[in-house]
Amino acid sequence: MKKKYIFGGIFILFGVMLALLPNKIAPVCHVEEGAKMMKCFWTGRALFGTGILLAVLNIFFCITKSAQIGIAVSNIMIALYAAAVPTVLIGTCKMPTMMCNAHTKPAVFLIAGLFIIANAIYLILARKER
After folding, report:
1. Which of 35, 39, 113, 117 has CA atoms 20 to 30 A from the CA of 74?
2. Mean pLDDT of 44-62
3. Which residues contact 6 (CB under 8 A, 6 or more apart)?
4. Contacts for 105 with CB less than 8 Å, ≥ 6 apart
5. Over the Cα atoms of the chain, what is R_g?
6. What pLDDT, in 10s, does the model give residues 1-47?
7. How many helices (H) and strands (E) does the chain have?
């Protein structure tokens, strides 16, 4: 099996995990109907969109012939953006014991970090191949 399909499948899986993270895997704080939307709600929305973007982008990783290196580099940049969403871009609740701080934020860092490592490994292997 080709390396691009193995890594592409892994990259798509990371995108799907990031999309499911704020709602299913490590949910952000629950918002009551009619209540003010908290920062973590918008963080969850941004992470969902980022995960979908990564999943779709990496479908192209699997089907293109020459754009894998560029997509892998953009994956790293998007993963850095995903890690910045709950910290400096949007943020989370102020209380450290809230679900968004105790579960979602560390999970985002874990998934983004592993995703960056996987893309770096791909780039190293691709460079050795050339």
Report:
1. 39
2. 96
3. none
4. 86, 87, 92
5. 16
6. 688 899 999 999 999 999 999 999 999 988 878 788 889 999 999 99
7. 5, 0
